[in-house]
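To whoever is on call:

I kicked off a structure prediction for a single chain this morning and the downstream step that reads the tokens threw a length-mismatch warning. I double-checked the sequence; it's 123 residues and nothing unusual in it as far as I can see. Pasting both halves so you can look.
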Amino acid sequence: MYTILVLDLTEAYCADVYTDAEIVKRFGESSLVPGKIKPGGQSAKRYSQNRQNAITQWFKEINRKLLSLNRDNITVCMNDYYYKRFEKYLHPYVKDKIKKKVSYNASGLSGIYDTLNQMENNK
């Protein structure tokens, strides 16, 4: 068994994958990271700062969830740019449990299947 986490700025989906191809959802969350700024809203500087703070909180929340899972073999699927930032907020215990990082823009359960297909094709 191994665990796959598919993460982007809008959604996180984590599932255990068993050798018989059974997939069991462990958690799925939607983030509160704001999208693009709307005309007439906050100043660009304030908006950017609020968005960066929301991203930091989102990554910390996912780290807490991974810590409580207590899994040994975690594959993280996310964009390289944000992975570097996400990695800064990982607890050392969780960081040691991440065995593979897949660079892919996917989300939800379909992201789990896409990650599995990509991992199979790379064997």
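Update from on-call: the warning came from a stale cache, not from the record. Cleared it. Sanity check on the structure: The helical segments are 44-69, 80-88, 92-97, 108-121.
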